[in-house]
Amino acid sequence: MQDYMNQFLQEISSDIGLIKADYKTYIRDIKKDVSATGERVDNLERTVDARSEDQEMLRRRVTALEEQHIDLQTREEDLENRSWSNNIYIQRVPKGVEGSDIMTFTADAPPPVLDRVHQGGLSPGPSRGDPQNPDTYTLLYRKKGHPPCFQEES
Description:
Keywords: Coiled coil. This protein has 2 helices and 2 strands, in the order H-H-E-E. It is mainly alpha-helical.
């Protein structure tokens, strides 16, 4: 019976040894997987940090471009207003009547009868005659058959 017990103990010991070896292999594989997962997480964290920095840089750039766009719109509007300020607009003249030469058209056109002139301006500015604030006038023409708005003194 002693032999039987010794044999049984040896079998159990060898089984325990096999189980131990299997667990060591299993634990080694788990450690490799954990290590690989840790490396992937580190790489992902670096990538996320880089993308966050890129996003912040792009956000600052977009803000700067929006400010520049607003500035350029303001400048463009100012330039358009300045270019229009020296133009004379003749209303109620059909488009294309002037032909190709505006100088001939204005020379051949009958002279308007000026009824009155109003000096205008939307806001008070520098003194009259200041080259940086040209005088603004509204020209009102008398229509055919209408009496003048004011009577000339005799």
